[in-house]
Amino acid sequence: MKKVVKVVAAIIENEQNEILCALRSPKMSIPNMWEFPGGKVENGEDICSALQREIEEELECSIEINSEIFNDHTHEYETFIVNLISIKCSIISGTPTAHEHSKLIWLKRENLSSLIWAPADLAAVDQLIHEKIVFSK
After folding, report:
1. Is the alpha carbon torsion for 49, 69, 116, 91 positive or negative?
2. CATH code, 3-130
3. Helix, strand or coil for residue 20?
4. Cα dihedral across residues 84, 18, 93, 35: positive or negative
5. Which of 61, 14, 12, 15 is nearest to 35 (CA)?
6. Which residues, 6 or more positions from 40, have their beta carbon under 8 angstroms from its beta carbon?
7. Three-class SS of residue 1?
8. Spatial CA neighbour of 77 closest among 120, 36, 129, 123
9. Which of 19, 48, 128, 131 has the fewest CB atoms found within 10 Å of its own CB?
10. 83-106 pLDDT per residue, tens
């Protein structure tokens, strides 16, 4: 039986309505594919605490959780299964810096499909692209 890994991902949007995308390094599993930054939920950790910890470790910045779960998707890879929980967030301090990833870029949601995404992230990418944005005046 394949191991199931619970993972949280931050969908971080800036003031220009661009979303932070992270390129997995060649040393990571599922190398050279794009993802939303985040990581594994440790035993006894809630998803929000895990996400804040992972973003602090990976990007050296602090985030605020803006929503309930945005997307919850389970994807079966060849050797393991990932349950990826994506949550919308905002940066409250620091500037995202790539440490584990090869590259970080900000993209408009309509351009997200131009990247080669890790399969587990595709459901959230698709949901973002088709999400209706409501502007308030």
Report:
1. negative
2. 3.90.79.10
3. strand
4. positive
5. 12
6. 5, 6, 7, 50, 54
7. coil
8. 120
9. 131
10. 999 999 999 999 999 989 999 999
